[in-house]
Amino acid sequence: MRSRVVYESMFGNTAAVAEAIAAGLRTQGTVEVLTVAEAANTPAPTVDLLVVGGPTHAFGLSRKRTRLDAAEHTDKSIAVEIGIREWLDAALPVTTGRRAAAFCTKVAKPPWLPGSAAHGAGKRLRRLGYELADDPADFLVDGMTGPLADGELARAQAWAERLAYTEHDRLAHRH
Ligand SMILES: Cc1cc2nc3c(=O)[nH]c(=O)nc-3n(C[C@H](O)[C@H](O)[C@H](O)COP(=O)(O)O)c2cc1C
Question: 20 to 30 A from 149, CA-CA: which of 11, 66, 156, 172?
């Protein structure tokens, strides 16, 4: 099975979750991990499963304004021009039967905020014609810049292993 993980990350937490997800997917085949900026610049062949994730900003997917806000909180250079929202909004619809899943990171502790970038990504993936392989998954960070809450990397990897197993099984029964 071939999978691709496309992610956006300001402080590195969603990047770490994306790598854990890739490790989980790798139990059933090959996986490519791309930042959203790389994905936007790289026409890529169709895969069996596309997994898309980003940080929750202002209750949903980031926007240029929120990415600029994030850039104020780190010395790292952050790509602000394109995020998951813009990438999916510019993507072409897909043919029936393509499979995808969505994830995000969001804060765990008070002040707890509603909203999930994973839901925003999942909604857009469905609108493009993807079938969602699972409910959008939220992974928790302990503060705006992280770190990830205890156990979240393991939970992300386990989530992806389950996804990979199910999708692999579906493919096996299709042939
Ligand atoms: C501008 C901005 C807005 C945010 N808004 C929310 C929010 O509405 N809900 C939430 O749970 N977390 C919010 N956060 C925290 C982010 O979810 C957190 O920074 C992110 O999960 C860290 O992932 P990253 O290291 O991959 O950027 C916000 C962070 C920033 C910078």
Answer: 66
CA of 107 to the centre of ligand 1 (A): 7
Which residue type sits at 157? Answer: Q
- CA 119 to chain CA mean position, Å: 11
Total of domains in the chain: 1
pLDDT tens digits for range 37-94: 999 998 888 999 999 999 999 999 999 999 999 999 998 888 899 999 999 999 999 9
- Residue 8 CA, closest ligand 1 atom number: 26
Question: Residue 160: which domain range?
Answer: 2-174
> Closest by alpha carbon to 146, among 8, 19, 14?
14
Q: What residue owns the CA closest to ligand 1's atom 1?
A: 66
Q: What is the CATH number of the domain that holds 108?
A: 3.40.50.360
pTM (predicted TM-score): 0.97
